[in-house]
Design brief:
By secondary structure, the protein is of the alpha+beta class. It has 23 helices and 10 strands. The longest helix has 36 residues. It starts with a helix and ends in a 15-residue tail after the last helix.
Length: 708
Amino acid sequence: MNRWLHVLTDRVATKKGTGWTLIIWLAAVAILGAVAPSAKEYEVSSIETLPDEAQSMVAAKKADQYALTSDGVPAIFVFHSDDRPIAKDELQRLVGHIEQTHRDALEQVVPVASLPPQAMAGFVSEDGKTIVVPAVYRATMESKDIQTVNDEIRKWVKKESDVAIYITGPAGIAADTLALFSRADMVLMLSTVGLILVLLIVIYRSPLLALIPLVAAGLVYGVVMQLLGVLGKAGLVISKQTVSIMSILLFAAITDYSLFIFSRYREELKRHENKWQAMKWAMRETGLPVFFSGGTVLAAMLVLFFAKIGDYRNFAPTFALAMAVIMIASVTLLPALFTLFGRKAFWPNIPRAGESDEKGTSGFWQKIGRFVVEKPLLTVALIGLLLVVMAGHTTALRYEYDLIKSFPDDMPSRQGYELLEQHFAKGELAPTTVLFEGKAKVTPQQLEQLQNQLEKQPLVSEVRPTGTADEGRVATFTLTFRESPYDVKTIDAMEQIIDRKETIVKQSGLDGRLYFVGETAAKVDERALNKRDMIVIVSLETLLILLLLIGLTRSVKRSMYMMATILVSFAAALGVGIWLADWLFGIGAVSDRVPIYAFVFLVALGIDYNIMLISRFQEEWRTHSLHEAVKQAVAHTGGVISSAGLILAATFAVLMTQPVQLLFVFGFLVAIGILLDTFLIRGMLLPGLIVWLEKEREAPAEADGETV
C-alpha cells in the first residue's frame, strides 16, 4: 500500500499536482452543491430503534393486524392550572376548538369532557388542576408538521385561557427534539469552529496554521453533507443526532491529521530548501500513518453494520462515508493546502533550511522520553496501576431508560410528562397492551382466568380488559405497573412476564399466544439487544483493529500491547468519567448507549496516537538503538500529539453544549479518554512497554518501501 500511496502523495507535492488537487476539490464542492440535495433536507429527529424481529415489534404488528392500534403518532395534551380546578365546559371549549381547527392533522382526540363522570375521573387529577386528553396525529404528519401544529395550539390556548397546555407523548417529544436540534446545530458548529481556531492560534501562534485546517474541514464538510443528501434521497434515514456527532468527528479528525502533516512538514522544511520536496518527504513518512489512522476509524464505523439496534446501525453509513472522504482529503487536500502556502503557513515562526532539527522537539517530552527509557518498569507499573484504579469505578455504572429525562427541564414535552408523574399513577404514563391470540373463540370465564394470572405477575398494579377481535379469538388487556414504565425494576418485571408468557397461557386454560405492546416491552428488547450489540461490537472492533495493526507494524506482539493499552484506557475513561459526571453534574445514571458510543470512538481515535508514535519509533529504529529510538519518537511526536489531543478532547467536549444528556455524557467521556490516551498512554505507558518488551537489534534495519 505504501508504494501506491507514495505515487499519489509525490504527485500532489508538485506545483502542478497541488494546483490540480485544489481545483478538483473546489469543483467537487461546487458541483455537488449545485446538483445534490443537502443532508439537512432528510434529517429526522428519531429513527426506528428496534429491528422487525424484536418481540415488541412483532407484537405491535399483531396489534396493527387486528386494527387494535392506530398507525398515527400518539400525543398527550396535558391541560394544567396552578391556581384552580379546570372547569368541564372550559376544557370542552378548548379541546373542541383544537379538534375543529386542526382536523387535517389530528386523526383522533379522546372526548374527555363528554365522558361519563366515572370514566372522566381517570383523566383528571385529584385536585382537578391537571387534565389529560389523549390524541393521535395522522400517520402522514412529519415531525416538522407536528411541530408547527403544536406551536399553533400552544399560542392559541395561551391567548384564550389562563390554562396552560403541554403536549407530550411521541408526537410532542419528536416535535420538541426537532426544535432543540435545529437551534443546537448552529451552536455546535460555531462552537466547534471557534474553539479549534482559538486553540490552534494559542498553541501555534500562527494565523495560517489555524485557518488551513478549518478551510480543509469546511471543504470536506461540504462534500460529505451533499453526498449524504444523495444517500438520503436514495432512502437512507439520517438522524440529527448522528449528523451532530459526525460533524464533530469530521472537524476533529481533519484538525488532527493537519497537525501531524504540518508538524512533519516543518521538520522537512529545515532539511530542504524547496517546499515541494519538503512536502514530498514529509508525506513519505506521515502519509501511510495518517491514512491508516483514518482507516482504523473507518473500520470501527463499518463494524456498526453488525449491530441490531437502529441507533448504532444508523451511524455506520454516515460515519463510514465521512471517514472515507476524510481519508482521501488527508493525503490530497491537506498536503496541497500546506504546500500552496509553504513556509508562509508558519509565519511568524518560519522554518529555514539548515536549522537545527532539535527545534522540532519538545523539551518537556524529551525529559519524559528520557525518564521512561531509564525506568520503563516503574513507568508501566505506576501508569498501569492508576488506570486499573480508574477502571474500577465502572462498577458504579447505572443505566437510565427514560429518554425524556435526558432532555432540558424547560422542554414542553418533558414538563407535560412530569406533570403526569406528579398527578397520576406512575404506571399510567405508558401502560402495556397485552394481546392474546387464541386458536378458538375465548369464553368470558377464560378471559377472566387470564386476567387473574396477569394480575399475579411481579409489580403489576392493574389489568383491564379492553375488547375482543376476530370473532372472539383475539382479546386485549391494558396492563399497568405500580412503578414508572421506564424504571429498571419495571423493565425487569416485564422481562419476567414475557419469559413466563407460555406458562401464563397454560395456567389460564387457554391455547394460544400472548403478545406485549408498549414502551416497557420495547425497553426489554432494547436492553437485551444492547447487551448483544456491546459484545459483538467490542469483539469485532478489537479483532479488526488488531489485524490492521499487525498489517501496519508487521509484529503480532507489538500490535497486541498497543491494543491492550487502548482497551485499558477505555475502561479507565469510562470509570473515571461516570464518577466525575455524578460528582460534578449530578448525573447518577446514563443511557445504555453511552458505553458503546464511547468505545467505538475512543478505540478508533485513541489508536491514532499510538500509530503515530509507533510509526515514528519504527522510523527512528532504522538508524538508532532501541532506547534512542524511543526517546526520539517521544520527543518528536510529543508536542504535536499533545496539541492534537488537547484540541480533539476540547472539540468533543463541545458536545456538552447539546441539549440531550446522552450527547453531554458522551462528549465528556470521550474528552477524558482522549486526554488519558494523549498524556498517559501515548506519552508514557506505550513507550515504557516498547522499551520493556522489545528486543534490541544487532544492527539498524534497512528501510524499505513497505516499512512505516
